[in-house]
Design a protein that fits this description.
This protein has 302 residues and is of the alpha/beta class. It has a four-stranded antiparallel beta sheet with strand order 7-1-8-9. Strands 4-3-5 form a three-stranded parallel beta sheet, sandwiched between helices. A two-stranded antiparallel ribbon has the order 2-6. It has helices at 2-33, 39-67, 85-91, 102-112, 170-178, 194-197, 201-204, 222-231, 255-271, and strands at residues 120-127, 139-143, 154-157, 167-168, 186-189, 233-237, 243-250, 282-289, 295-297. 22% of the residues are buried.
Length: 302
């Protein structure tokens, strides 16, 4: 009899153990209904406490970081100080606050070129124009009196033999273009042959080699165009900011020949002044050699 009672008691205890989770869940629901803190509120509280604990740890870490000795920051070097030794030595001979006369600036440029090769001499002329307007999109070509100092390879897109041309013949040039080969620096064509070059516009256009009447490379007088190209014909055009960039020769030319070329460029730019520009036409003129320091030119020179 006693054994049976013990067995029954064990069964009751096991049943209670099984029912415990359900009972606890019911009690928690009763607690929430009774106005005490819900499961959601308890979870939010735990997250808040964890967040505050993380902040405390971060504050301690920041305090320890502040206690560490900081390395002294090196002062930022100027642009001139970051340049090479030869450039800095050349720049010391130029007064940045001075506007030089053209002849003086060219004499100084030929002496301060910091490179060992025969450097190019460049003019950078900032014009008071807006290239978005057609009449202010300054563009022209001219023959430099002393040449450019470069060996120019001229090709003629025509079957006629032209004296001075390095390459000629429609079939010869077409075969080379089909292969993507460009063996010339200037391409001259007659108006009648221009339609045949249309299919190569994507190859020639981005390289500035597409013949154009404005640059004098589309003409009926092919011999004259070839001679001018060989003699030193150059083309210039303002960029999107209204600045003309143009090489006027080599350092080896000497100041006198470079001045002749520069005067020719100034005359061309002055002659192309738009009628719509009523205020000052030229903002600034700078002269520089390849990898050399810039020299500011007096605006009265143009």
């Amino acid at each position: 009899m006693a054994k049976e009672e013990i067995t029954e008691n064990e069964e009751v205890t096991a049943a209670e153990a099984v029912e415990t989770p359900e009972v606890e869940a019911q009690e928690e629901k009763k607690t929430a209904k009774a106005g005490k803190r819900s499961e959601k509120a308890l979870k939010e509280t735990e997250e808040k406490l964890a967040k505050e604990e993380r902040k405390a740890h971060q504050a301690e870490a920041d305090t320890e970081e502040e206690k560490k000795p900081k390395q002294a920051a090196k002062p930022t070097r100027s642009r001139l100080e970051r340049r090479g030794k030869n450039f800095r030595k050349a720049a010391e001979q130029i007064d940045k606050a001075k506007n030089y006369k053209l002849a003086e600036a060219l004499e100084l440029a030929t002496k301060t070129s910091p490179v060992k090769f025969d450097a190019s001499v460049e003019l950078h002329i900032n014009l008071n124009v807006d290239p978005r307007h057609a009449d202010q999109n300054i563009r022209d070509n001219l023959v430099l009196p002393a040449g450019t100092g470069k060996a120019v390879r001229v090709a003629v897109f025509d079957d006629a033999n032209v004296e001075g041309a390095d390459l000629s013949g429609i079939e010869t040039i077409t075969k080379a273009l089909e292969k993507g080969e460009i063996n010339f620096d200037v391409l001259v064509a007659t108006p009648a042959q221009m339609p045949k070059l249309g299919k190569y516009a994507r190859l020639l256009g981005p390289r500035g080699l597409m013949p154009n009447p404005k640059s004098g490379t589309v003409t009926t007088d092919v011999a004259k165009a070839v001679n001018e190209a060989k003699a030193g014909r150059v083309e210039y055009r303002v960029d999107s900011t209204g600045i003309v960039h143009l090489g006027i020769g080599k350092v080896s030319f000497g100041a006198k020949k470079l001045e002749d070329n520069a005067r020719a460029v100034f005359a061309s730019i002055k002659g192309n002044k738009p009628a719509s520009v009523k205020s000052a036409y030229v903002k600034a003129i700078h002269l520089a050699t390849t990898m050399g320091p810039s020299i500011r030119i007096d605006l009265g020179e143009l």
